[in-house]
Amino acid sequence: MACKYVFVTGGVVSSLGKGVAAASIGALLESRGLRISMLKFDPYLNVDPGTMSPFQHGEVFVTDDGAETDLDLGHYERFTHARLTRDNNVTAGRIYETILAKERRGDYLGKTVQVIPHVTGEIKAAVRRVSEGVDVAIIEIGGTVGDIESLPFLEAIRQVRQEEGRENVVFVHLTLVPYIAAAGELKTKPTQHSVKDLREIGIQADILLCRTDRFLPREMREKIALFCNVAEEAVVAATDAASIYEVPALLGAQGLDDLLLRYLHLEAPPPAMDGWEALVRRMRNPQGRVAIAVVGKYVEYEDSYKSLKEALLHGALAGNWELDVHWIEAQELEAGAQEVERRLGGVDGILVPGGFGKRGIGGMLLAIEYARTRRVPFFGICLGMQCSVIEFARHVAGLPEANSSEFDPATPDRVIYKLRELRGVEEMGGTMRLGAWPCRLELHSRAYAAYGQPEISERHRHRYEYNRDYEARLVNAGLRITGSSPDGQYVEIVEIEDHPWFLGCQFHPEFQSRPLEPHPLFREFTAAAHAYQQTRARASEPEEIFHRSARRA
Ligand code: GLN
What we know:
The chain is an alpha/beta fold. The chain folds into 2 domains: about 5-280, P-loop containing nucleotide triphosphate hydrolases (Rossmann fold, 3-Layer(aba) Sandwich); about 285-535, Rossmann fold (3-Layer(aba) Sandwich). The protein contains 20 helices and 23 strands. It has a 9-stranded mixed β-sheet with strand order 13-12-14-15-23-22-21-18-19, with helices on both faces. A 7-stranded parallel β-sheet has the order 5-2-6-1-7-10-11, sandwiched between helices. Helix 4 (about 90-105) crosses helix 5 (about 115-130). Residues about 550-553 have low confidence and may be disordered. The structure holds glutamine (GLN). The site of glutamine has 10 residues, from strand 19.
């Protein structure tokens, strides 16, 4: 059977959650037993988001094949089982790069190279690349209708509908129905305009997902249907949800999957949404909570740690706990011991995530020292793992000047260094270790206890590594190596055995965590944090009883 296509565009304003909407459509169609793939087009001119600042762009999501992609791909992987590679995120920059390379090679045989048909042709080729071996390809166009940059993409998907036929292509448009407080009303005009803008470029939306912060009454839906030229049942309310994980069920309850199947002339078994529904029930009925401090360096911009935030939530959900994250800008801890105590004193676990550059390292080291000496569960990821090695080397292994050559190239004890540069590894696109690498675990370790299997595969994005010249000193002082690359070159996981839970990993486990399949390390870390909270509560009980009886007396 030929692949069917669902194109998801957005209108009125950005940040309406187009990525979550597209991912939810993926989840709904998978729940009907269909095989799907997902693609995100980004109309900007960067070749990929790898070099963009976290403030500009949010997290860079890394796929197994080492592509540095848009964070919406994280939603796609968390909501569906689509296999994602560099083919699943294509920017205008990538399209132009391909075309310019062809032009220089003379592939166009002297023709004038133009937006139509050459740019649109490359865009269509990208669409067809993700259509192999699946029933439905869901394709999200970044930006909003009306952006100059989006035009070639919209033109290309208009052509796809012509070429593939009406019964094989559906256009879903995500739009805003704002509530105007002064008038006390929901307004449909922005939606009407956005749908009209789409029509002007030859695309008639089939289904409207209307973002609102409240109930969308029947008369509103009728009005939108009439003015936007869609069926009334195709005006779907995408009401604000307490969690993004409620969205698939919320859209399914309005029959979105049935509608898509009907429009695409597809037959499929009834939906199997039990997993998602159970998840929502658990989220609404937590049995306790865990407080985790994340001590990082871009914390004021929450999108920069998107996958991490989700993975922590998945871990907490596995234990049926509500998650309370304290985002702490590492630099602020450098104010002194009092500040460290004030910010970290009440939390159940401490996590130091990934990052680049020197700023804030002092604060991260203080947080790690606090976790190690006060025996608070600690999880270090990438930069966080590297900092845990530095902290341990300085304060336990007797190397007071230990550092990473990233922060101090002249340090006498570079416990973290650029191993691959020394070995002369030259790689396309820079010296980063990117994408999935296998890792072998030590049998008697927290890592093995979590994963329950001796070999794992995790994704990387970093330049620096643990320096094995220091292995003997660090291991003898108590910092175990419990995961390494199968060839033994790279150290991937370190642990302190004499501690309730202290683990650092060189890879980014957060990229592979799913709400319905929480990542083992996040599950175990949050469980350790909850256990720590319980012991602390027990330890403080006698004192409270004493106070109470003292008051009575
Ligand atoms: N800056 C460190 C490195 O490049 C860590 C990177 C990261 O945390 N992703 O090795």
